[in-house]
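Quick check before the chapter quiz. The format below is the same one you will see on the exam, so make sure you can read both the input and the output lines.
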Amino acid sequence: MATRCHLAASALGGTVSGVRVAYNKLVRDQIPDIIAAARSQPSTRVLDHASYRGTLRSKLLEEAREAEAAPDDQLASELADVLEVLRALAKAHDMEWEDIELQARRKRAERGGFDRRIFLEHVDQAPSRDADRCAAPACPNRQPRDRPDRW
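Here is the expected output.
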């Protein structure tokens, strides 16, 4: 989200007014040039590797939210942004794209895809064999459950 503040500067008796818009986010490589070509002045810095990796994760969420909110006729463009961030994130972690595709194929083979549009509403779990076990998150003697954390 951008924030704005008005600027005024005095130069040789004249006044130049403008608006500073703060973005504080990772942008594509050519964005500063595009901004400069539009006669605005970008302020940028290059992130160190650790900051870049963390910021890419935040950028992935930003782009995923934009894809979620996009109308159908803009979805392909937003998904392209998600894909670009995924590729950058993989590269920043020294991963080969082919390895990620291999993991995706493995998961699809083990758990399926989303082709059947199944929406899990809830799960009624069988009573525990051990009465001392408690599945509630706030239970003081909570034990690991006999199911994956993520479905």
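If your answer matched, good. Helices lie at 31-37, 49-69, 75-92, 97-111.
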